[in-house]
Write a structure and sequence with these properties.
single chain, alpha/beta, Rossmann fold, 12 helices, 9 strands, globular, binds nicotinamide-adenine-dinucleotide
């Protein structure tokens, strides 16, 4: 049976590791937060005292960490896990980080003879719990195939976007568009309300018209229009404003590096930043709707 090490058991990593256990993998886990490790231990994982101990003997290592600096410190820094990895280990980093950092980590690990794919996810905490994440992968095709059984236990779609770093680039392009769509959808719905229209009726009209988009279909930002979405739960749960800001920051860095024109992302970044500065950083990103509200 494939031995998997899982590092980073937060909102996403915790349920992802649980799904690996449910699929029958032997999983050894590590997180800086002891309670998160204990929770996985109760679900059947082996608990490691350190990241180095977790990766020892692992065929596949999965990491789900907050940002680039955490990923680099795990795989590139001298204090990281490189000296503890099994010689033919495959490393899957599912954190959302900048593409250049993913390429740097890939270059460092492959130079030492290890295999690496960047495999950021779309689908949020709900998708992580349900095992329905979409993995957007960069790396060698043979490594994507080797990762497939492990990824399939945590998600339902696996896309091979291209070489190392391409997974991160594709993920960030998608989230850049999502940020813009949520802002535009909120703006349109608020203008309809300000002109006396019912937001539910307006949403139904746009869903059958050319303004149709994912936010209207599955994630309406106006409270009361749709059940079981963050807007109808005081914007709790879902995907935090500050995580969207992080992704927009990565998108704007990528735009600068690739000399891409992204004025819509720049405006969206300002909007989410203002919204966060008003104390909404921990709310779901669809709460941007409130920024457009006439009655404050
Ligand atoms: P989180 O903050 O809940 O979890 C991160 C975990 O990493 C924490 O438990 C933390 O203790 C642990 N950690 C940090 N440094 C570590 C180290 N050196 N060794 C071991 N553990 C360490 O974050 P999250 O919401 O699970 O997100 C993880 C990644 O997934 C981020 O890159 C995020 O952008 C991305 N992502 C999140 C969502 C979402 O909806 N939350 C959706 C898609 C992608």
């Amino acid at each position: 049976m494939t031995q998997v090490a899982f590092i980073g058991l937060g909102n996403m990593g915790g349920p992802m590791a649980e799904n690996l256990l449910k699929a029958g993998f032997n999983v050894t886990v590590f997180d800086l937060v002891a309670e998160s490790v204990d929770k996985l231990k109760q679900a059947g994982a082996s608990a490691a005292e350190s990241a180095q101990a977790a990766v020892m003997g692992a065929d596949i290592v999965v990491s789900m960490l907050p940002a680039s600096k955490h990923v680099k410190s795990l795989y590139v820094d001298a204090s990281g896990v490189c000296d503890s990895l099994q010689s033919d280990a495959l490393i899957i980093d599912s954190s959302t980080i900048d593409a250049q950092s993913a390429k740097d980590v890939a270059a460092h690990l492959t130079a030492k003879g290890f295999n690496f794919i960047d495999a950021p996810v779309s689908g949020g905490v709900g998708g992580a719990k349900a095992g329905t994440l979409t993995f957007i992968v960069g790396g060698e095709a043979s490594d994507v195939e080797r990762a497939r059984p492990v990824l399939s236990a945590m998600g339902k779609n696996i896309f091979h976007a291209g070489a190392h770093g391409a997974g991160q680039t594709a993920k960030i392009c998608n989230n850049m568009l999502l940020a813009v769509l949520m802002a535009g959808t909120s703006e349109a719905l608020q203008m309809a309300i300000n002109n006396g229209l019912d937001p539910k009726v307006m949403s139904d009209i746009m869903l059958q018209s050319s303004g149709r988009n994912w936010c209207l279909e599955l994630y309406n930002p106006c409270p009361g229009v749709m059940d079981n979405v963050p807007s109808s739960n005081d914007y709790q749960g879902g995907f935090m404003v500050d995580l969207m800001r992080k992704d927009l920051g990565l998108a704007l860095d990528s735009a600068l590096n690739s000399q891409s024109n992204t004025p819509m992302a720049a405006v969206a970044n300002s909007l989410y930043s203002i919204h966060s500065a008003q104390g909404n950083g921990q709310k779901d990103f669809s709460s941007l709707f409130e920024l457009f509200s006439a009655k404050k």
